[in-house]
Amino acid sequence: MVNPTPKQDWRERKKRGERITALTAYDYPIGRLLDEIGIDIILVGDSVGMVVLGYEDTTEVTLAEMLHHTRAVARGVKRALLVADMPINTYNDAKQAVQSAHELVQAGAAAVKLEGGASHVAQIRAIVGAGVPVMGHIGMLPQSVRLEGGYKLKGRTPGEVEMLRNDALAVQAAGAFAVVLEIVAKEAARQITSAIEIPTIGIGSGDNCDGQILVTHDLIGLFPWFTPKFVAPEARVADEIRRAAQVFIERTRHGDVKVQEASLPAN
Ligand code: KIV
Questions:
Q1: What are phi and psi of 89, to 5 degrees?
Q2: Which residue has its alpha carbon closest to ligand 1 atom 5?
Q3: Is residue 28 classed as helix, strand or coil in its secondary structure?
Q4: 20 to 30 Å CA-CA from 116: which of 5, 124, 147, 249?
Q5: Where are the domains positioned within the chain?
């Protein structure tokens, strides 16, 4: 079944209590695998900067890099909703936001995601008005990590909960079809989820959200140097890569080449 377009049915799914599943992809094979197994939403996250490109955080990711990875994932996705992250400094005002969103759509995205709540209503409204569905993102905002001095839990005090609820309502009123809650206290996430009609997609925000998203590299153990505390990896792919490469190195050094000579057609 093809996923609902953002405008139509995500609110209905929330009403029916159907949990929404989302994972990141940055290349063709992972995009295709996730699509084939039936994930609802595939996000080409700007986390690509950290887990693929080796940057310290997401603040160095460029639009050109996001376009490159979005094109690769799009080639493998037929069914899931493909959302592309808008990198930092590509949506500083409404005009720039619409231009950047259009470029991501031309690269194959069906929707875009941007970080910010009430402060970014003009950008969300403009992108949605230009016909591109928007996913909001509130709570801990990775693009602000340097300003904030780290990845900190949000929604611990009544004042913070109130601000987050207002952000969620503002993002909804601006026309977003869903909103990511990143590293928000569990009780705050519950309150926000029940205060709005669009689905909340949690990451490190407990189990009261309408859906969950993770960075796939964290879920499958493909970035072994750092795993966020809230992730329980389901696989150890980095260990498998090390093991297979080690076997290849040993075999090659001992002249034990298992692969037969390629049988190419004779000229
Ligand atoms: O960039 C990303 O991968 C994200 C998700 C973790 C929500 O924004």
A1: 65, 25
A2: 45
A3: helix
A4: 5
A5: 7-235
Known catalytic membership, residue 12: no
3 state SS of 181: strand
Residue list, ligand 1 pocket, CB within 6 Å? 24, 43, 45-47, 85, 180, 182, 203, 213, 215
Contact predicate 212/19, CB 8 Å = yes
Q: Measured between alpha carbons, how far is 19 from 40 in angstroms, rounded to an integer? A: 10
Which protein residue has the closest C-alpha to ligand 1 atom 3?
45
* pTM attached to this predicted model: 0.94
Determine the atom of ligand 1 nearest the C-alpha atom of 115.
8
Q: Is the dihedral of CA 265, 262, 75, 114 positive or negative?
A: negative
- Tokens 């909804």 belong to residue: 172
Mean pLDDT for each 10-residue chunk of the chain (267 residues)?
58 96 98 98 98 97 98 98 98 98 98 98 98 98 92 95 98 98 98 98 98 98 96 98 98 84 65
Kindly give, in sequence order, each residue whose CB lies less than 8 Å from that of residue 118, ignoring residues fewer than 6 positions away. 166, 167, 170
First CA to last CA across the chain, in angstroms? Answer: 48
Q: Name the residue at shortest CA distance from atom 8 of ligand 1.
A: 45
Beta bridge partners of 179: 136, 200
Catalytically annotated residue among 60, 182, 197, 250: 182
Nearest atom within ligand 1 for CA of residue 45: 1
How far is ligand 1, taken at its centre, from the CA of residue 215, in Å?
6
Q: The domain at 7-235 falls in which architecture? A: Alpha-Beta Barrel (3.20)
